[in-house]
Model the fold of this input.
Amino acid sequence: MRSVKVSDYMTDYVLTFTPDTDLFKAIGTMLDRKISGAPVVNSEGEVVGTLSEWDCLQRILHGSYYEEVGGKVGDYMKTEFLSIGPNDDIVDVAESMTTKNWHRSIPVLENGKLVGILSCPDILKVIYDFDVHTAEGAHGRA
Done:
């Protein structure tokens, strides 16, 4: 399993938002697509942040208290995020996620540009695939 690269399991079709995207439009898109978040990119395609459903919930609750609900994604996105490369080892990435207690999908960058995203379910699929193949191989030798 150590030889598995991020590019083998990452999602390469990635929904993105821009800092100027309306917050409620972003929320609607996440709900329609059944995703928990997405990278935020600038006009050059560089990732400048991430927006998650959790960020939205926190901000909307806070904003409703002050009767200031809404705005742009750039006002609510997290600007600190993990990023990885397509050739990174997936086990190292999983260890980093657990060590840093990172629950979000991770943007995959190559030469500073977004080429994919890796989520916890993607990593679980690696483990599942590895276990299934191992189990099938063991049964075949019996």
